[in-house]
What we know:
By secondary structure, the protein is mainly alpha-helical. The chain contains 15 helices and no strands. It has a single domain, classed as Growth Hormone, Chain: A (Up-down Bundle). The longest helix has 32 residues, at 14-45. It is globular, with a radius of gyration of 20 Å.
Amino acid sequence: MAANHDSYASLRIPNFRLLITGHGTSTVAREAQIVVVGWQVYARTGDPLTLGLIGLAEALPFIGVALYAGHVADRANRRIVALIGTFVMMLSAIALLVFTYGSLRAVWPIYLVIFLSGIGRSFTRPAVTALSAEVVPREIYSNAVAWRSSTWQFAAIFGPALGGLLYGFAGPAAAYATVAFFFAASLVSMGFVRHQGRPVPLQIPVGESLRLGLRFVWNEPVILAAMTLDTFAVLFGGAAALLPIFARILGAGPQGLGMLRAAPAAGSLIMGVFLAHRAPFRRSGIALLSAVSAFGACIIAFALSRNFYLSLLILTLSGMADQVSVVIRGTLVQIMTPDHLLGRVSSVNQIFIGSSNEIGAFESGVAARLMGTVPSVMFGGTMTLLVVVAVALWSAPLRRMREIGVT
């Protein structure tokens, strides 16, 4: 099997290349924007809770519209849905640029723009996930997930570094203008995708359609356990929201913040390329549990570090561990989910994982206000390890899960 493994199978498909290029370009824009917004807001307020509120502003759309967005991704043209969502995110970047040029001092309009951007992202993510599965043969899903995730991680390295450098050397206005440009480039790339998809006519009420996605996940114990594991790991292990504070603790400016923000993605990219060049895991359940445990240990180590370069290394290792989890979970969802449910199940996954990133950011901000920055991050890493133990004891099917993708 290893001898027949084609590491570049999915990349040989033009529509898949265009799709992940567009998705990667929009990720560069979003990740750069996160760095710029975080530094700008914290510089104005000096309050860690305001960093958590940024996450909350983006989490609310996830929770509010994600299921409906998955329903739309299964019933409408997925390419058009992705284009509209990306266009909304581009308008949000333009709004932040206008606020900066106007020397706006209030913070709440920024939260409003992030909220609107979150709505656009809520519709884009399930559409892109389902469309990327639709344009490649099912037997190379694992390879496609690895390359799509690696592209995302490369963008998540370049984006924060770009945002930090632009903020530090050219100011926030130049940074937001560049973000808007990258969103526009994403629209162009996805606009050239020629696969139109086959929307399924609506034959049941919308409410029942949304419940179908939830019921499918609930009745698949391995998917449910994998999503639960990642949800709580991300929720408690989300130190990313507090990186502006750690950048100051470590004596780094916005440029250093960009490097810290990019470090997990760098580790994820390294691991993602490695996974794309190897056959699927033979004991996927144990690999998933081990990866999340390593992630929790890295979060604790990061909280204790007082050396900038050691912190970069630890965050890089955390990204490598997280990427193993991402690939296993992504492959699991695409392999086990029927095509007509991919959008809705992706939206459920988005609620589990996507919203937990932002809610985790809010939790981090609240915990930092109550416990202090370092103790709150150590607490989060410890809780992640406890979650791994709890899920391992609860889900025997996950522990026993073996190879889930054959390429």
